[in-house]
Design goal:
Helix content is 1%, strand content 39%. The chain contains 1 helix and 34 strands. A hairpin with a 3-residue loop joins strand 33 (411-415) and strand 34 (419-423).
Length: 424
């Protein structure tokens, strides 16, 4: 395998604190019963970490414990609570959108609920009409369907509430997943500023029991398809939105903008990850990655950006931190880049498979000392975590796969182009 020459420049700010001086910055994880399941995008940790367990690291198209057909099309990932798996899907050109529930034991479809719609949204072919991953607190399941709004379903498939947003004009269609926090649910939608009142860009908090707005803060960004995260800085909680041209933090209680860091590219999809006192935000089409020390005020570009890479970031997949290392996959060239998270110093770079433009969509996961990267053709590259590149093997699902997996109780749950399958 040809070794790729790494281009990574660490830009240290004058205000960068040393590792020994840095306060703990952490993702706010799922607590309680939800820790046992996979209740949201990127799992209980919010960043693709899986508790150690008896998970197989090898599979083939024929090794599924069960496999069931999923109607329609969608790139949303499965979420799991108790004995149920939830997925969203879309039919035709978006004329019908629905929430599906399946039994974990055998993959049997339990119910399908179609949502009320008003028109059809334009979306990019790769985005589709069901890209936002649902989230659940064990009582309701919450899902975003773009212009049709934010929905809450009970576990029997009944729609409990709907909050409409109007047309989301961001030229590739909406995709960001909702985020639960205490008594509320967050979503952000970036859109054309020329949109009519009530349809322009915003980040908002909504009551999880009723869907009523708690606050909605206007934004100026025109496009963005990522998912927000909520972190704790050691001093306060912050809602982090990584999107067009900048990363911004908001007060989860009031929606007030706390700080902003410039330097992102025009199109941003990856979800931020957190560790070593920093928030790591990657921007699309091989743009820069910023390592930001949160907790600031106003424009913190010159004071709180610990390091940045000039290029090579993923367009779609999110990053992953394992130990002291940050892993990203540049899906424009199929290049895995590993750096020291605290400093941005290069560790290694190598190619996973062949170079394919926009060839990876699923975000990586880490379990039992291995990092799993899955490309759009359903190939999963199993890489040993560490400072030296060690590709253990490549697994095949045998079908196009854009959704990220869910892992619960020793079982992988995969959504492919036409199926939902369990592997253990």
């Amino acid at each position: 395998m040809t070794r790729i020459v790494l281009l990574m420049v660490a830009v240290l700010s004058a205000a960068l604190v040393t590792a020994s001086e840095s306060v703990e910055v952490r993702m706010i994880e799922v607590v309680g019963e939800g820790q046992k399941y996979w209740p949201r995008w990127r799992g209980p940790s919010g960043q693709g970490h899986v508790a150690a367990g008896q998970y197989t690291d090898r599979w083939s198209p024929t090794t599924s414990v069960w496999k069931t057909t999923v109607s329609g099309r969608g790139n949303s990932s499965p979420v799991v609570w108790g004995g149920r798996i939830f997925l969203t899907t879309g039919y035709g050109n978006g004329e019908r959108l629905s929430m599906l529930a399946f039994a974990r034991a055998d993959g049997k479809q339990l119910w399908e609920t179609f949502i009320p719609q008003n028109g059809v949204e334009y979306v990019h072919a790769k985005n589709g009409f069901a890209s936002a991953t649902p989230t659940t607190d064990g009582e309701l399941v919450y899902a975003s369907f773009g212009r049709h709004g934010l929905f809450a379903f009970d576990f029997n498939g009944k729609i409990v509430w709907q909050r409409k947003f109007g047309i989301i004009d961001n030229y590739h269609g909406p995709a960001g997943s909702p985020v639960l926090y205490k008594d509320r649910i967050f979503i952000y939608q970036d859109a054309n500023p020329a949109s009519p009142p009530g349809q322009s860009a915003f980040v908002g908090a909504f009551d999880k029991k009723t869907g009523d707005p708690i606050w909605m803060t206007p934004r100026s960004e025109t496009v963005g398809w990522g998912t927000a995260v909520v972190i704790n800085t050691g001093q306060r909680d912050e809602l982090i939105v990584s999107s067009q041209r900048r990363v911004a933090a908001y007060d989860p209680a009031s929606g007030k903008e706390l700080w902003t860091a410039r330097g992102m590219s025009f199109e941003v999809i990856p979800t931020p990850v957190v560790g070593h006192g920093l928030v790591f935000a990657s921007s699309g089409r091989a743009g820069p990655t910023l390592a930001i020390r949160p907790g600031g005020s106003g424009d913190v570009t010159e004071t709180h950006v610990a390091w940045s890479s000039p290029r090579g970031s993923p367009f779609v997949p999110s990053g992953l931190i394992v130990g002291d290392l940050l892993y990203t996959i540049n899906d424009m060239q199929s290049i895995l880049t590993v750096v020291e998270a605290a400093t941005g110093k290069a560790v290694y770079q190598d190619r996973l498979g062949v170079a394919i433009r926009e060839g990876f969509s699923a975000s990586p996961v880490h379990v039992n000392g291995k990092v799993y990267f899955t490309n759009d053709e359903g190939q999963t590259f199993v890489v040993e975590a560490g400072r030296t590149f060690k590709l253990r093997h490549v697994n095949e699902l045998g079908e196009r796969t854009l959704a990220s997996p869910a892992l619960v109780d020793g079982t992988w749950y995969w959504r492919t182009a036409s199926t939902l399958r369990a592997i253990r």
